[in-house]
Amino acid sequence: MYFLGIDLGSSSIKLAVLDANTGKSVGSRTVPDHEMIIKAPQSGWAEQDPQLWWEYTCTGIKKLKHQGVDISLIKAIGISYQMHGLVLTDKDLNVLRPSIIWCDSRSAPIGEKYYQQKGAAFFQDRVLQSPGNFTAAKLKWVQQHEPELFYQVAHMMLPGDYLAAKFSGVAQTSKSGLSEAALWDFKKKALAEEVLDALDLPRAVIPEVVANFSHQATIAPQIAERLGLSKDVAITYRAGDQPNNALALNVNQPGEIATTAGTSAVIYSVTDQDAFDTENRINTFLHVNNTEAQKRNGVLLCINGSGILYQWLRKILSTGKDELLSYDFLNAQAAQAGPGSAGLNFYPFGNGVERIFNNKKSFSGLQNLDFNRHGATHMVRAACEGIVYAMNYGFEVMQHIGAGGHSVKATKANLFLSPVFREIFVNTTQTTLALYKTNGAEGAARGAAHGYGFYTSLDESAHGLVLLSTQEPQPELKQQYTDLYQTWKNNIQIIA
């Protein structure tokens, strides 16, 4: 029995088909062939066209078919997606404006205004954090700045909700999706109507709310025919990319921790407490397996500038070349410089405001650059160190509120492909790192199989998950990285 997982990122869309009987992927594709464009009409803005997401998804399904996957055997679809984005449609599901995506900073002042106006106690009691630049604040921005367009809005959706609606013709969202929008009341365990009231936002734009795992909707007949899928295919799972990454790694119980270092860098810890940081440097959302009877929350730290910094370096170092340098080449360059990068510090804060600084801007770029000492090797190594140090800055906050730990799981992908990055990570965070062969699309397929009822538990859904390796901190490097991190941390410069 086959299940399709779709992982909608900001750089690409990944698709995987899982044979649930074996727990193995029978086919996967990434679309498009190039990185998807993020448009920035103004400084601090970040937008993408949701209709392109759908077109690329359809292309990916067709490529799976051409790859030899019998897509007619697919029983259900699971969707993972870039968190906190805003998609607005009319009643016929026509997109009204480009999606304001996760790293867009324009609504941060709005979130802060209402946080101060209504009071920290109000928001922390209900949504465990400030509205920040989450989806609710983005919706308020549209209401204030594009009132004529706002009048046409029938549905507010997150990116994955939009994909599901394109498959089914039904506008829905999930409980965990509402939590990442700052619209889930953790106290009442329901839509945060008091938050909507505080922001003067209408309830009518909130679509039907469904459980993360459930028979949410059935594919529309015309879409099934167009794509070659069975007319009985159901949408049975949806979740933001970070909770889904945790699911993919079987991180679902209190004390378990997952990490990623893709476009952004994330550490995500599962807890059975309504934990929050009073300074809003980290965030708490419903985890995918939260139920009335079993509280499961995900505590998340996010560094916007991670893989996107590595992408930027790749482009800069490839200037004048016929082709972009490979990431393997960059990783090899980093290995040629020693710990500390000969005194060069890199601050990876060039992709919008950072949550770990309570949505304030910080200096981004190189510090202590010496034209006579430093070259490309030092710059690449310093970038890896800066990304890890920024992650550890947030990890310290997680540990402070009781959401830390000493063992972390990750997919062997993106920056975790780099031996240098892994060395820096385990010795700075002082954690054991377990690397697995999986990805977000495969995780979404496992979620779909569980939501369909094929797997009766999340532990069972991890059937076939492959552990590749583990890496321990090295005692001889502990003090060295502790000192390097402290020096880097002491030189952080908050701009606003």
Question: What does this 3D model show about the protein?
Answer:
It is a single chain. The protein contains 17 helices and 23 strands. It is of the alpha+beta class. It folds into 2 domains: 248 residues, Nucleotidyltransferase, domain 5, CATH 3.30.420; 159 residues, 2-Layer Sandwich (Nucleotidyltransferase, domain 5), CATH 3.30.420. The strands form 7 sheets. A 7-stranded mixed beta sheet has the order 17-18-16-15-21-22-23, sandwiched between helices. A 6-stranded mixed beta sheet has the order 3-2-1-5-14-13. Strands 4-7 form a two-stranded antiparallel sheet. β2 and β3 form a beta hairpin. The mean pLDDT is 96.
The CATH class label of the largest domain is Alpha Beta
Strand content: 15-25%
Q: Specify Rg, calculated over alpha carbons.
A: 22 Å
- The DSSP helix count reads 17
CATH homology-level superfamily of the largest domain: ATPase, nucleotide binding domain
In CATH, the architecture of the largest domain is 2-Layer Sandwich
Number of beta-strand segments: 23
Q: Using the coordinates shown, work out and report the CATH topology of the largest domain.
A: Nucleotidyltransferase, domain 5
